[in-house]
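Re: the 370-residue chain
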Amino acid sequence: MLNNLYHDRRCQWSMYLLFFIVLAVIPLYVTDAFLLNQFALYGVFGLLAVSISLCWGAGGILNLGQGVMFGLSAYGMAMTMQMQSQDPVSNPIPPFMLNNGLDHLPWFWTFFQSTGGGIFLSLALPTLFCLLFGGLMFQARVSGPFFAIISLAMLSAIATLVLDVQPYTNGANGISPPMPLQVFGRSMDPYAPGIYWLVFMLLAGLTITGKLLTQSKFGQIVQALKNDPERVRFLGYNVALYETLIYTISGFIAAVAGCCFTMIVQYVSPAQFDVAFSITMVIWAGVGGRLSLLGSIIGALLIQGGQSYLGDSFLNSWMLILGLFFIVVVRFLPKGLTGLLEAGLARLGPQKAITRDDASLMTLKLGDRA
C-alpha cells in the first residue's frame, strides 16, 4: 500500500464530500439569478472535465474531439426544445427552416417532437457514436497521438457538416429555442435555482460514479493498460474492449453536459464543435490534474472563472496566456495542481518503491488468483 495520504481512500472521499457540500450550499448564499446561471454553466464545464479525466487520465486515451459528443447532444436538446414551441398541426416547421426554403419538416426532426424521445436521442446518439467509432479505432489498435489526430479530424468534419446543412441546422446562426425546456408540465427556467440543482446533482452523481468505477476491478484494468497495454493483453484481457468502454462512458458524460448546456443558455451553434473548445477541455484536465476527477473539475472552474473575469481585459491574448500556462504546468507539474498536492503530502510519510501502474497490475494478478 502507498503511505501517501493523497492515495488514502478515506481522505479522498472526505475531500469529495467537502467539495460537493460547498457546491450544495451555493444557492443558499447566492441570490443573483445571473450569477447562479453562470455557476450552473461552470457545472457543465465540470462534467466535461470529468469526461476528459476518465478518458485521458484513467484510460490514457487523449481525445481531442470530445466536442463531437458535447455538440451532438447540445443540438439534440435544442431540437427538442424548439419542437416544444411548435404546434404539430398548425405550425410544425421552425421559422429558420421556412427562411431557408423548406416547406415540410425533415423526417429526422419528427423524432424530437416527443420530449422524452428527444432527450433520449440526445444522450443515446452521441453514446452510440462513441461505441462505434471507438470500437473501430481500438480494434485496429489506433492509439496515442494517432487517435488524438483522428478524433480532431472527426470533430472538424462534423463541424463543417453542421455548417453546410444550413436549412436543417440554421448553419452558423445556430438554434435558439424561444422557450425553456418543459418537463412534466414544469418550465426549467435557466435562471432559477432548479437548473443549478439539476446540474449539481448530475455533476455529483456522475463524478462519484466515475470515482467508484476507477476503484473497481474494471478501473484497475483500464489504468493498468494506460502505459503498457501489451502487459495487460498478455494477462488475457481484451484491451480494445476496455478502451472502447471507457471511451464510451466518457462520451456519455459529455453528452449529459451538452444537454445541460442547451438548457442553461437556450442556444446552440457550430461553436460547440469548435476545435479550440475541445482542446480547452484537455487543458482543464491537464492543469487540475488529469489523474484526479476532482482535480479536473477544479481545473475547469479555475480556468473558466479566470476567463470570465480576466478574458475581457486581455481579449484575444487570453488564449495565448492559457496556452502558456498549460505549457508551464505540463513542463513543471505533469500531474497538474493535484500532483503538487500529492508531492506535498508525500513529505508527511515514507513512500514504498512501487508505482501506481505496478500496483494496478499486482491487483489484477491477485484478483485472478482469488
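The CA atoms of residues 107 and 168 lie 11 Å apart.
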